[in-house]
From TrEMBL:
Protein name: YlxP-like protein
Source organism of this protein record: Alkalibacterium gilvum
InterPro entries, A to Z: DUF503, TT1725-like_sf
Domain of life: Bacteria
Length: 93
């Protein structure tokens, strides 16, 4: 069994209030969870209006499949939302 996760820091463009940020973050979390079958959560920078830290995780019996699912989710986030991934940290167990 493989556990894999990624923690990303996002810069959210055109977010001038916490309400706008929450709207974008909730959309990202719902879409990623439903399309890629990942566990997702906002894990940091909750008080900042244009920056967020999100965590994604997956459990599988295949390491390559875990990595592909997480990478696909990251690509989709950058393609469908006006955000920039500033940094990311991979976690494996």
């Amino acid at each position: 069994m493989f556990l894999m996760g990624v923690e990303i820091t996002l810069l959210i463009y055109d977010s001038y209030s916490l309400k706008e940020k929450r709207s974008v973050i909730k959309s990202i979390l719902r879409r990623t969870e439903n399309r890629h079958q990942l566990s997702v959560a906002e894990v940091g920078d909750m008080d900042l209006q244009n920056k967020a830290v999100l965590g994604f995780g997956v459990v599988s019996n295949n390491r390559t499949l875990c990595r592909k699912r997480l990478e696909a989710a990251l690509k989709e986030i950058e393609a469908h939302y006006e955000v920039e991934i500033l940094e990311y940290h991979w976690i494996e167990a």
